């Protein structure tokens, strides 16, 4: 485990659980790369709003999708990264022309690979002297990796077979509205 304040490398690898909400045939998937308020195995806790400045500056296109934090193994691209009430929600697309991405996709579909880990530089943090927990108040997010062992082991893929996973209410509402809009447009053009 690297901590930015102790090493010359300014980046920190934080392992967070992935809760997939959709895994499709084209390599699209979604989930949570970080869950706010949960203490990980390294005694770090990401606070709500910690990624806001970084995401405003960098956006999803500026955050790399890697396999096991290996900069030589990009496997796709993040399409959506946003903070919500639960944590850092992500939607990504694995690149079908990349052999490792095809392997990752196959492993995700069988439930053999379901972890995410965030790579970031700590900008602002406070340590609780009583518990030793470090509260990350601001983080410069630079990559999110698909990994075997997440630092927050509690959230896992719930059901790959039927493609029914946890989905946050905001995302589900947006998807429902999009489907309804498409349906109304199709009805209007047919009529």
Task: Provide tags for this entry.
about 40% strand, nine-stranded mixed β-sheet, disordered N terminus, 9 strands, about 20% helix, 3 helices
Overall description:
The chain has 191 residues and is α+β, with helices and mostly antiparallel strands. Helices cover 21% and strands 38% of the residues. It is built from three helices and nine strands; from the N terminus they run E-E-E-E-H-E-E-E-H-E-E-H. It has helices at 52-58, 99-110, 169-190, and strands at 12-17, 22-23, 28-35, 44-46, 64-67, 70-83, 87-94, 115-127, 134-147. Strands 1, 2, 3, 4, 5, 6, 7, 8 and 9 form a nine-stranded mixed β-sheet that branches. Strand 2 and strand 3 (28-35) form a beta hairpin.
Topology record:
Elements: E1 12-17, E2 22-23, E3 28-35, E4 44-46, H1 52-58, E5 64-67, E6 70-83, E7 87-94, H2 99-110, E8 115-127, E9 134-147, H3 169-190
């Amino acid at each position: 485990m690297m901590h930015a304040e102790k090493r010359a490398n300014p980046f920190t690898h934080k392992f967070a659980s992935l809760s997939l909400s959709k895994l499709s045939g084209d390599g699209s998937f979604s989930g949570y790369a970080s869950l706010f308020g949960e203490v990980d195995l390294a005694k770090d806790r990401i606070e709500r709003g910690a990624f806001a400045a970084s995401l405003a500056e960098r956006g999803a296109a500026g955050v790399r999708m890697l396999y096991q934090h290996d900069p030589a193994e990009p496997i796709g691209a993040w399409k959506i990264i946003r903070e919500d009430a639960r944590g850092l929600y992500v939607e990504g697309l694995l690149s079908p022309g990349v052999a490792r991405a095809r392997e990752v996709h196959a492993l995700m579909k069988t439930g053999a690979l379901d972890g995410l880990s965030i790579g970031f530089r700590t900008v602002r943090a406070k340590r609780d002297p009583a518990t030793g927990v470090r509260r990350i108040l601001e983080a410069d997010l630079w990559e999110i990796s698909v990994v075997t062992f997440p630092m927050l082991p509690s959230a896992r893929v719930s059901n790959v077979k039927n493609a029914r996973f946890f989905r946050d209410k905001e995302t589900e509402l947006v998807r429902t509205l999009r489907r309804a809009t498409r349906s109304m447009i199709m009805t209007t053009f047919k009529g």
